[in-house]
Amino acid sequence: MIPAPYRVRSRRPDRADTVTLTLEPVEGTCPPFLPGQFTMLYAPGVGEIPISVSGHARSGGYVQTVRAVGPVSRALCRARRGDIVGVRGPFGTHWELSRARGMDVVVAAGGLGLAPLRPVIRELVAHGARYGRISLIAGTRTPATLIYPRELARWGRDLDVQVTVDHPDRTWTGPTGLITKLVARIVFDPGRTYAFVCGPELMMRATAGELLRRGVPAGRIALSLERNMKCGIGRCGHCQLGPLFTCLDGPVLTYDRVAALLEVRQL
Ligand SMILES: Cc1cc2nc3c(=O)[nH]c(=O)nc-3n(C[C@H](O)[C@H](O)[C@H](O)COP(=O)(O)OP(=O)(O)OC[C@H]3O[C@@H](n4cnc5c(N)ncnc54)[C@H](O)[C@@H]3O)c2cc1C
Ligand code: FES
């Protein structure tokens, strides 16, 4: 599958190592995406990596947030307005918001996990009346690594938003420590709660464990598994996790299906 050329319409630096790009197809329209899906983004001459779609731009096109951690993500973060990148997709399973209708909702994000959850949060803000109590909890290393700080402040007008940091600085007045501490602080009815969880695997396991302890069934805890991927379409086996190909069967899966598999090391 050949990547389609997309033009960088805008580039917003979010943090020292993180940028949000708005990408528009050079020709035609971009295929619709469902919250939680990802595209394979190609930095010309460098390589291709999976990146979640964080939103639709008003003008059409995808909004995608990239953190520079290695060669390809660094090249994408360096892209300037007008540059061309390649896009395949969107691929993968999605956050099933319809299953959360009428229920209390917990959204838990660790670090960059906020990016794949952004479309979920925007839907919850826009249509809060369709759901019960809505809590958004987020954890990050330091105040300086928190992405979308302005949006978090805006979302806080409609949702119960709580952020914790591992290492506070002098400006930080909020909670500190693990996100699991926040699970204990938020109000929800476990018997009628749906949870969306995304972040590093250790964080997701700990958060899912805490939600289970509070009585949320494993089948109503959705996680996004960011295993290393190459093809994104079920051909290479790179993303295999037990019987699952996380590019096809995931990235979004419920905890009952993956709890036992999360011990498996990445290829
Ligand atoms: C479904 C999916 C959605 C993703 N969404 C986003 C997103 O919205 N924004 C974003 O910045 N990143 C996202 N990632 C992670 C991103 O794909 C990796 O950071 C990227 O592949 C790194 O490639 P690289 O060439 O820049 O660095 P590499 O040299 O390949 O890796 C640099 C370092 O990052 C680690 N790494 C590589 N891939 C992953 C991964 N999948 N998870 C955790 N650590 C990894 C490597 O082990 C290594 O330590 C997503 C991954 C998946 C599978
Ligand atoms: S990334 Fe190739 S099979 Fe999933």
TrEMBL record:
Annotated FAD-binding FR-type domain residues: 1-97
Protein name: Anaerobic sulfite reductase subunit B
Pfam families reported in the protein's UniProt record: DHODB_Fe-S_bind, NAD_binding_1
SUPFAM superfamilies reported for this sequence: Ferredoxin reductase-like, C-terminal NADP-linked domain (SSF52343), Riboflavin synthase domain-like (SSF63380)
